[in-house]
Amino acid sequence: MAPDLRISAVEYLAWRRALGYRLSRYDGLIGQFLDYLGEQHESRISVEHALAWACLPGDTRARWHTARLAAIRGFAAHVHAHCAEAADLIPAGLVPSRVDHAVPYLYTPTQLTGLITHARTLRPEVRGLTLATVIGLMAATGMRIGEALALDTTSLDPAGATIAVTGKYGKQRLLPVHSSTTAALTSYLRTSRALVGSPHDQALLVTGNATRPLAGNIQHGFRALTRACRLPAGTGNNEPRLHDLRHTFAVNTLVEAHRAGVDVDAQIAALATYLGHVSPTSTYWYLTASPELLDLVNDQVEAHRQGRSA
């Protein structure tokens, strides 16, 4: 007797989550796929229908199609293990996908200083102060905008020179920071509270209403700021983005490591942990993000090759 696929889906998701997987989108994706099968009057999972559903809608990227098919592949394998007639095994690689990274805008120290200085002139005063602090914090630590806005006053430990950050998937990490960073945040807390009072939820960064800022509002303010400062377009004619402060921090860290002769693999492993990357693979991408960094890597490779030849 063929299994009820919806019951199988509940069992499959419960089993995977018991193993520690989060699968935040899988409930919806598998449910949508089963709805699709119902519309096709199908009661089993076939490669043909899984692929057709995964590629819907047609105007979305192949990367999204790959993610949709991956959700069904694991589910189909689960069903197949219990009843081979109810589901085909879906091969990998049916939807070729390549991750296209946006070319990062790498800020110079002069540009960063100009952005922070100009932000402090904005009104109301707390708006400019908060935007300037976000820019300085992201440039100094490489944290994501969501991580910065989620910080509480208790996240900062000036005595220990650390910031407790909650990153993707709720993972927490403790960032050691320079004393100038903790001093700037301590000064921000004192000034912002004098302007708007204390927020109800212990937010470190605040708006004029003493509430936690929204990422969209910060990004909008940052775009307006880069245009006011007349920053030139970057490589590929790309506009400067708020997230590129994180890229700039990562690239500068690796440039400094190369100049100091630090082992790049060890530095990337440490940087991956600091940035909250799930895998160091994401961090290795920064090696290609800067012409200066590429030149340093090439110089080291050439020196190593000549040393061998000698």
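^ that was protein a. below is b, sequence first then the tokens
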Amino acid sequence: MSVQDWFGLTLTSLSIVAFLVGGVKFLVKHYLSELRPNSGSSLKDQVNRLEERVNQIYDHLLNK
């Protein structure tokens, strides 16, 4: 293989790795945004609301 072939192979490999790293970074950022409260629509907010409702139900049952 010539120097140009090695250079092309190296650039192709680096491009593929950069694309994969960018994809993983995007996915991690997207999933982490669901775990932060954002005034109502995130998974974290929904879990917090459910937890509060369960606590209210427990309190109601214990008071009867």
